[in-house]
């Protein structure tokens, strides 16, 4: 059993306030709930958004019926809450009308649940995101030497809980292919009435080959034979379903800085590799740079979310092809990072960067030697 960072939800539970837990499908939200509920002294009721009767009840805005549903309980837990129509109003009724009640709601897609709970629960909710297993979570199970030994596995197969606990390469591949073919589009189809996965899968394949590079929506639209607005809509849906995440360009001073493009990364390396059916070992691959950058961007995002490191993340590039992989703006300071798989050779900050941002922190090069300090160390 892998101990998750949010293993104990008690500190996040407040009376007359909802705890909303987002995260991709099969990332461990239900297991997290079950483990927590097995230890809590609270009298609780656990229900699923798949329950048609529950959908009708909590979506009805019928005060007496909703209050009767929660009567006698200290904690109401709603798994896959995004499937319940008007769930935000249903939770608001419980939060406002039942003194002392605590509520947990999980969702495997953020677009529907976030839209529903956003306005009704303003000032009445706490939000957490559960990611595929982070290296900082695995550090409790393995020492640094062991984590580095397992690094090629994480780069190729990612860190979904089922994948990490699978015994063989074949089993890991089977799980990832099942995730891609059966699960990752499920919420998009259910909530957006899309008819098929081919265009979405083709879009993900194009993104998989462009990890670490700037993405042109016009180019994607041409390759997919669809219009640019549709590409933008699909990218937004894929991001809200926790499949991809985008980073924008950092620009403050120079006319030569790229400002209008984005880079897209996959929430998990294993999903990225499954999309293009590429599970070859590292010494037989020509995309190690992309794998390394995707891995570090996501692990850094997990660390910042779990450790409450607040700020903004960007990439930086000029039209003259000078670039820095990651720029973090936090605490009034600017931190540049460059990602290199090989620890050999020193990377210097571009002169244009030094000239434009003389007060920025020194460039840190993150390699396969020192990466754990960057994504694990407090």
Descriptive notes:
- The protein has 378 residues and is an alpha/beta fold.
- It folds into two domains: 10-129, P-loop containing nucleotide triphosphate hydrolases (Rossmann fold, 3-Layer(aba) Sandwich); 133-378, no CATH class.
- Helix content is 42%, strand content 17%.
- It has 18 helices and twelve strands.
- The protein has helices spanning 29-37, 52-58, 63-70, 87-97, 110-118, 135-138, 144-149, 151-157, 161-165, 169-183, 186-192, 198-208, 217-224, 228-240, 269-275, 288-306, 351-356, 371-375; strands spanning 17-22, 44-48, 75-79, 102-107, 125-129, 214-215, 244-249, 262-266, 312-317, 323-330, 333-339, 364-366.
- Strands 6-8-7-9-10-11-12 form a seven-stranded mixed sheet, with helices on both faces. The protein has a five-stranded parallel sheet with strand order 2-3-4-1-5, with helices on both faces.
- Helix 8 crosses helix 15 (269-275).
- The chain is globular.
- The model has no long low-confidence stretch (mean pLDDT 91).
Outline of this structure?
By secondary structure, the chain is of the alpha/beta class. 42% of the residues lie in helices and 17% in strands. The protein contains 18 helices and twelve strands.
């Amino acid at each position: 059993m892998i101990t998750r960072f949010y293993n104990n939800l008690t500190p996040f539970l407040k009376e007359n306030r909802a705890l909303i837990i987002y995260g991709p499908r099969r990332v461990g939200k239900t297991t997290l709930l079950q483990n927590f509920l097995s230890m809590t002294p609270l009298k609780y009721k656990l229900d699923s958004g798949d329950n048609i009767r529950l959908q009708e009840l909590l979506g009805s805005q019928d005060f007496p019926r909703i209050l009767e549903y929660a009567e006698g309980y200290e904690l109401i837990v709603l798994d896959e809450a995004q499937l319940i129509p008007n769930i935000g109003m249903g939770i608001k009724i419980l939060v406002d009308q039942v003194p002392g009640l605590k509520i947990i709601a999980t969702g495997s897609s953020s677009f529907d649940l976030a839209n529903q709970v956003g306005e009704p629960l303003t000032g009445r909710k706490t939000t957490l995101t559960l990611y595929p297993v982070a290296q900082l979570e695995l550090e409790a199970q393995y020492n640094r030497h062991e984590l580095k030994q397992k690094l090629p596995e994480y780069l190729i197969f990612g860190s979904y809980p089922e994948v990490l606990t699978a015994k063989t390469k074949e089993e890991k591949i089977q799980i990832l292919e099942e995730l891609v073919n059966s699960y990752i589009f499920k919420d998009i189809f259910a909530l957006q009435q899309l008819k098929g996965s081919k265009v979405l899968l083709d879009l993900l394949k194009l993104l998989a080959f462009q990890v670490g590079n700037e993405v042109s929506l016009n180019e994607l639209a041409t390759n997919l034979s669809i219009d640019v607005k549709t590409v933008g809509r699909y990218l937004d849906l894929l991001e809200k379903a926790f499949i991809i995440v985008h980073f924008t360009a950092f620009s403050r001073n120079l006319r030569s800085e790229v400002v209008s493009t984005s880079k897209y990364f996959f929430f998990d390396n294993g999903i990225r590799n499954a999309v293009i059916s590429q599970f070859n070992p590292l010494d037989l691959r020509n995309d190690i740079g992309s794998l390394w950058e995707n891995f570090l961007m996501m692990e850094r995002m997990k660390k910042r979310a779990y450790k409450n490191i607040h700020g903004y993340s960007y990439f930086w590039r000029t039209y003259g092809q000078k670039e820095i992989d990651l720029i973090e703006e936090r605490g009034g300071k600017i931190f540049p990072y460059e990602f290199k798989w090989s620890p050999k050779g020193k990377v210097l900050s571009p002169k244009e960067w030094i000239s434009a941002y003389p007060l920025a922190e020194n460039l840190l090069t993150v390699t396969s030697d020192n990466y754990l300090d960057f994504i694990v160390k407090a």
